[in-house]
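Chapter review: from sequence to fold.
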Amino acid sequence: MTMDWGFPDFDAHEGVHLFTDRASGLHAVIAIHSTALGPAMGGARFWHYADGRDAITDALRLSRGMSYKNAMAGLALGGGKGVVLAPAPGATISEEQLKAFGRAVESLGGRYVTAEDVGMSVERMKVIADETRYVSGLPVASGAAGGDPGPFTALGVYLSVKAAAKRGLGASDMKGVRIAVQGVGSVGGGVARLLAKDGAVLTIADVDRGRAEALAAEIGARVAATGDILSLDVDLVSPNALGAVLDERSIAALKARVVAGGANNQLATSEDGRRIHERGILYTPDYVANAGGIINVGLEYLGQGDEAEVRARIARIPERLDQVWNESEASGDPASVVADRIAQRLIGRG
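The token string follows.
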């Protein structure tokens, strides 16, 4: 019997754990999708949700994505995700809540390993590490694997954008390629800087208009409104903010021939992968493109290799994308479907 427990995104998850700590005010969800390849690793995010069901749904979707991401990156890790509910937009997580979350992670006995995500930082990981052994992304010595995953995620996304531009546009380099970057935080900002050095023509947008304007002045980009960025007349759009931005309406408005970015769960629904495919737009599966950060903290946790090994593995991300695109072209199936199919085989669910 298949049971979704009232959550359509429940995908035979091995565990969904809800935590409340009255003393600190912590409310958190830890979802474990699969431990077939190893402990379930995935970052913890601090975010405001309209209600608890939205937080659980996010944890379910993100943990499944982490199973697929870790498998496609060749890591001996399963997929999990932590979600800590913020009481209001823009709230700051307290040290007491961080410690309570660390105790929640520790209570799972190593089945889930946490790391940095939206609303967290290396310094906050250090506080969590006071309460649990099962944490990665901590400060490391120069040349070692680990530490802040953001720059490594950005590197992987940058290489994916280049691979997608070559595949979908026939571009041998990025000079003159018109790119719209949605979200210029740690990852999107890093990607934009790398593309600017290559001579790409950039338009950027961010919910923090000041941050977008400062980066635009630094790299010579144009700033657009967040509501317009995906529908601009450009060659490639790069979503690097939060997920579910590619839906029936936004896909219909796309003028770009390629989509390649680092945001998790860019497709609002599975059907949207087919919509983008039917429009003849090359789609870059997000959990393949944005695997650089988890490769970094994953190898740190597993004790396998140094920064050079991290960079060598990130450099192989375009090879995995070519595998997905080749199979998509041969089968006629959307790239999103093909990527899921490969990942499911890798975790023993195919």
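Two observations follow directly from the output. The first helix runs from residue 52 to 72. The radius of gyration is 19 Å.
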